[in-house]
């Protein structure tokens, strides 16, 4: 338990230092890396389709609204 507490204290101090320096936490950096990998792997394919979407779909205020609007666009394409 002492080792676990030491690791947690170290991690907390690192997060505080990163915050003070204006840097992202390790979790946020990892999420950014995952998003970048997804974008890079689908770049040509997805970007082309995204750019064809109507403005009201792209500027949807929430994921739920986006899904409903995309469904309408896809249904109209068929």
Counting DSSP H or I runs of 4 or more residues, the number of helices is 4
Question: What distance separates the N and C termini?
Answer: 60 Å
Assembly context of the chains: single chain
Radius of gyration: 20 Å
Can you characterise this structure?
The chain is mainly alpha-helical and 78 residues long. It has one domain (7-77). The protein has four helices and no strands. It is elongated and about 60 Å long. 0% of the residues are buried. The mean pLDDT is 80.
List the helices and strands and how they pair.
Elements: H1 2-20, H2 26-52, H3 55-58, H4 63-77
Q: What is this entry, summarized?
A:
The protein has 78 residues and is mainly alpha-helical. 83% of the residues lie in helices and 0% in strands.
């Amino acid at each position: 338990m002492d080792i676990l507490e030491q690791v947690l204290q170290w991690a907390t101090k690192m997060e505080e230092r990163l915050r003070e320096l204006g840097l992202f936490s390790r979790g946020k950096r990892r999420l950014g890396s995952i998003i970048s990998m997804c974008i890079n792997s689908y770049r040509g394919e997805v970007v082309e389709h995204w750019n064809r979407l109507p403005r009201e779909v792209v500027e949807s205020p929430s994921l739920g609204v986006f899904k409903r609007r995309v469904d309408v666009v896809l249904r109209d394409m068929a």
